[in-house]
Amino acid sequence: MLIKSFVWLSIITFALIGCTKKETKMERIYKLERIGPAQVVQLYADGFDQLTPKEKIFSYYLHLAGLAGRDIAIDQHHRDALEVRTLFEQIYLYQSGIDTNTIKNLIKYLKLFWINNGFYDNITSKKFIPEVTFEELKQACEKAQQNGAMLSNEKETLEQKLNRLKEIIFNPNYEPQMTNKTPGEDWIKGSGVNFYERNISYSEIEKWAKAGDEKNPLNSKVVKEKGKLVENIWRAGTDGIAPGLYAEPLSHVIKYLEMAIPYAANDHQAETVRLLIKYLNSGDLNDFRNYNISWVKDSSSVDFILGFIEVYLDPRGQKAEWESAIFFTNPEQTKLMQNLAKYAQYFEDEAPWADMYKKKIDKSPIANVINVIGSTGGTGPVSPIGINLPNEQAIREQYGSKSVLLHNIVEAYDKSTGLEMIKEFAFDEAEIEMQEKFGSKADNLHTAMHEVIGHGSGKVSDKLQGKDPSDFLPGYYNTLEETRADLIALWNAFDSKIVDIGFAKDESEVRKIGETMYQQTIRVALTQLRRIGKSNQLEQDHMKNRQVIAHYIMENSTAVQIEKRDGNTYYRVVNYEEMKNTVGKLLAEVMRIKAEGDLEAAKKLIDEYGFKVNTELRDEVQRRAELLDLPLYTGFVMPKLEPVLDPEAKIVDVKVSYPLDLTTQMLEYSAFTNKRR
User: Fold this and answer.
1) Which of 90, 369, 654, 666 is the most exposed place for a label (fewest CB within 10 A)?
2) How confident is residue 170, by pLDDT bands cut at 50, 70 and 90?
3) For residue 181, which of 603, 593, 619, 552 has the smallest C-alpha distance?
């Protein structure tokens, strides 16, 4: 599971754990441009030059493997997404003579597409459309085609293509949402995401799955053939196994993984890569499990996440989005995370849920602070700030998990984001002062607790007979699990062990950090409403999770007061002890729901507290936020890796540079994948 970065942008200013600012960093360019709701920020990979040539070459080939699979994620967002991207990229490349205002708006649409890996907003899940008319697009295409753009073929004219794509590009009411989890609606037919054929209903899928016919819930597209549901498995194919969906890009991913193996840190890491290759060839989820077991035991300095991982996009919470993230450990910053991991059993024992759901932790989970080298798909250009994997509950219980805090992502946010939002929505100057003094520590503690202690904690009931709880909680599991991990951070925020771990100097500071975390948690219920446009409901799992916590506390205790001043609404924590007690009550119930796979209880909790929003309050928040003119989310330009070759054209090293330009990088990425088709 991952913590999406946009969740906390509305709450705090990101800062580093014990960061020492250097003059060279202060002179860097971070903020590159603003594109509608998004800002573009350059990511820096400090420390890459200190890696050994072997480590850098390993990173380089892993990064190429991630890029080779990038188009899979885009195709997963919508069946027409790749075709739309190619259309707009061709217009950009052959834009000479196109009307100035038209090309400006077409480029804006293209950049938002790049940042979101498609034409759906990553926060609201709503489709965005270009600020041009269909006729203006048609004229731009005709001019680009005259200039040499490849926009048609012998099977389809340009006009036919544009007419076919007109609805998906221009009609905001046609497949308007990538992932739809509105209670009472058909989640499959109401979602544009490309995991299911359009003629399949949610009830058909659930009946088919309950009958035991769904063998590859994580890595397949479900289609209907001769009236029956069939899985098209995502795999490259190998001896005795036919190629499946995405076979071509996966074969290129595998090629670069094979090239990486000689540069692995040790035999175990090399074997881990081989197990990943085996899975990508076979599509067999047993192979994926074996890979995850090997990966979670690997503590090499250079590491990676690659494949079909997170299931947030699927309305059922089953199908996984392609993602890749290549990174290396930041040794200095990792000490605190590892100290926290040593106390995993202590926090497990102190959890407020029933003893039957507490597990014995045989070894400390792997917990690192890392610097990202490159990310694609579900982790880029929009990036999480924290990750905990593997997701499979049985592996977590038996073998543990890995948690990482993305140090340079956090740093880039810190350099590009100010305190304006806090000053607008904090109740008073005292709250602002608390945020300035303790906000970054509260956030880092929250993220570390969420990932290291939260996702790795607890065990499920024997009633589930070894099955994963997500199988029993379709459409609700992701929100529930993110809620649980956040609640664990809140429950432990005042624990004196935080001093022993090194996150605070004394118990007085622990108190201040805990109070600041509680203020942040309540304030986000307000500030995140600025991101949802005119929607009257929340769709994104992380946003729903924050809303569940804040609104449950507000409606089941007197710990929080709603204050009005000059027509503006403020949420104020007035009783921290009562809030903690309410957090414990909710956490115990959320753990029970997960452990028992109680779907009806999950529905009741999340639909009641985390789904609908007060539209008057939404409009007020958006009015206040608009005056600040702040971006709603961030897309990162990744570092660029280039091989250093010897006279015999053998790679001997890798150098890193920073493009400082989204367009250049995205066109290079597209050119890279196009060459491999």
Assistant:
1) 90
2) very high
3) 603
pTM above 0.85, yes or no: yes
Q: Position 596: which residue type?
A: E
Dihedral of CA atoms 520, 525, 526, 530 in degrees, nearest 10, equals 110
Extents of the domains making up the chain: 2-47+330-635, 79-119+130-171
Q: What pLDDT digit, counting tens, does each position of 380-427 carry? A: 999 998 898 999 989 988 998 998 989 999 889 888 877 888 999 999
Q: Which helix (H) or strand (E) holds 573?
A: strand 568-573
* pLDDT per position as a tens digit, 585-641: 999 999 999 999 999 999 999 999 999 999 999 999 999 999 998 899 999 999 999
Pair of tokens at residue 13: 């200013």
Full DSSP string of 10-76: TT-----TT----HHHHTS--EEEEETTEEEEE---TTGGGS-HHHHHHHHHHHHHHHHTHHHHHHH
- Determine the residue type at 353: W
Looking at residue 206, its amino acid is: E
Q: End-to-end CA distance of the chain: give it in Å, rounded.
A: 31
Of how many residues is the chain composed? 677
C-alpha distances out from residue 340 to 159, 344, 366, 502, 590, Å: 60, 7, 10, 8, 23
Q: Which residues contact 386 (CB under 8 A, 6 or more apart)?
A: 2, 3, 403, 404, 405, 406, 447, 448, 450, 451
Residues in CB range of 12: below 8 A, 6 or more apart:
422, 435, 439, 440, 442, 443, 520
Provide the pairing of β-strand 402-406 with 366-377. parallel
Q: Is-contact 381 4, C-beta < 8 A?
A: no
> What φ, ψ does residue 284 adopt, rounded to 5°?
-80, 125
| Beta carbons of 249 and 69 less than 8 angstroms apart | yes
